[in-house]
Design brief:
- The chain is of the alpha/beta class.
- It has two domains: 30-149 and 289-355, Response regulator (Rossmann fold); 152-282 and 375-402, Response regulator (Rossmann fold, 3-Layer(aba) Sandwich), CATH 3.40.50.2300.
- It is 43% helix and 17% strand.
- The protein contains twelve helices and 14 strands.
- The strands form four sheets. The chain has a five-stranded parallel β-sheet, with helices on both faces.
- α2 (45-64) packs across α10 and α2 crosses α11.
- The termini are far apart.
Length: 406
């Protein structure tokens, strides 16, 4: 190689080095991109849209306040279409192609459970906002952090409420045959048996079944004091409408949140008047005393023209936690972010205090709500625990034939 070629090669190398340096500097000043996997379409789209609203509000607030370490936050969405296999594809796309250092999601327990082995293999942190099935945390992955309470806490909170409000003696469990439903069923059956309640009916159903009448008639024959549902919105609404048709009258209609907990449930979009008097566990309501809750409610209403249940708030809180971890790590290295998440301790957020235990589980308190009329409108009202209660629970549930005609 002659001297001229050597000089040209040296100049090219220098130019490339300058270009790489410029690109690196640009990247370090560019937005911090977080990957989100949720159900923007499909059967769980109503919850995915709630997620998106919560993520949007949090990112807008953080960026308006200067971002994180001087950089803006940006969300890269992947729509899992309410399908577990799509959620797994989302992990690969967001990590391998979009190069996000941290993931948030998914909505459903089934999709989230499918994601756990993949994020563990790829060694990228996952913050879970909403998926409650306890088997998600059973693998003990060091890369998984769950913000919401699990199905076991849902069951015990419901039973604590029942023990102090009539102390029923038996229970029927009706659940969707998915990971969420199966986990909720398992938690309630085990907890009820430990507390001396007899499980007198244990009924699974396929999601979006055309008819629940035969199932509900079987439950009616057992005459349970309590029914505990684990259902998404479409099924929750159909189950309550058909419960009226078959004249099923337990003393308590209770649920593992989800479809029974969303603001649409007591409207014509959901069960309408048939939602009245149902109980649900909830992880948050706009009326709770945690600072910032009412402000979030107002911003959410501006976006979607409905008041939020806890799903949008959980997404909002997940971004707050991600911001704290990024600031604490001072780096976007996934291992550094994982280690920072282990150390996150936020005494006050609109979702309550946040601190993860060694398993990656946040100790989040659970409320029990009842759908009651307030100023002529059905709404979820907090009835348990006593220190958080807005009003007294109405028990037992009035029989269908004794209810007021609306």
């Amino acid at each position: 190689m002659n001297s001229r070629s050597i000089r040209l090669l040296a100049l090219s190398a220098a130019a490339l080095a300058l270009l790489l340096t410029a690109c690196s500097q640009s990247a370090s000043n560019g937005p911090i991109r977080l990957g989100v996997i949720t159900s923007l379409t499909g059967t769980n789209a109503i919850f995915g849209q709630a997620h998106k609203a919560g993520y949007t509000i949090a990112v807008n607030e953080i960026n308006a306040a200067g971002g994180v370490n001087g950089r803006r936050l940006e969300i890269v969405y992947f729509d899992d279409q309410s399908k577990p296999d799509r959620a797994v594809q989302g992990v690969a796309k967001l990590v391998d192609q979009e190069h996000v250092p941290l993931l948030l999601g998914a909505y459903s327990s089934e999709s989230t459970l499918a994601m756990v082995p993949v994020v563990t293999q790829k060694q990228v942190p996952l913050i879970i906002p909403t998926a409650v099935a306890d088997n998600i945390m059973a693998a003990g992955s060091p890369w998984v952090f769950r913000l919401c309470a699990g199905s076991g806490i849902f069951a015990t909170a419901t039973l604590d409420f029942l023990k102090s409000n009539g102390d029923p003696k038996n229970i029927a469990v009706v659940y969707e045959n998915t990971n969420f439903g199966q986990a909720s069923r398992k938690s309630m059956v085990e907890a009820a048996q430990q507390r001396g309640l007899t499980v007198i009916a244990d009924e699974a159903y396929q999601a979006k079944s055309p008819d629940y009448e035969e199932l509900l008639r079987r439950v009616k024959e057992r005459n349970p004091d309590v029914i505990y549902f684990a259902s998404y919105l479409l099924d929750a609404a159909a189950l309550m409408r058909e419960a009226k048709q078959v004249n099923l009258n337990p003393k308590y209609y209770t649920s593992a949140g989800t479809g029974f907990a969303v603001s649409q449930f007591p409207t014509t979009t959901g069960a309408g008047d048939q939602a009245e008097y149902t109980f649900s566990v909830s992880q948050w309501l706009p009326s709770v005393l945690w600072k910032g809750s009412q402000e979030f409610d107002a911003k959410y209403f501006q976006l979607l023209n409905v008041h939020p249940a806890y799903h949008g708030m959980e997404a909002y809180a997940a971004v707050i936690v991600a911001k704290e971890a990024i600031a604490k790590a001072g780096s976007l290295d996934p291992t550094a972010l994982r280690d920072a998440l282990r150390q996150v301790e936020i005494p006050e957020t609109p979702f309550g205090p946040v601190k993860f235990d060694p398993r990656g589980q946040n100790a989040h308190p659970v409320l029990v709500t009842q759908v009651l009329r307030k100023e002529g409108k059905l709404d979820h009202r907090v009835v348990w625990p006593p220190q958080e209660a807005e009003t007294r629970a109405v028990i037992p549930t009035p029989a269908w034939t004794e209810r007021r005609t609306k």
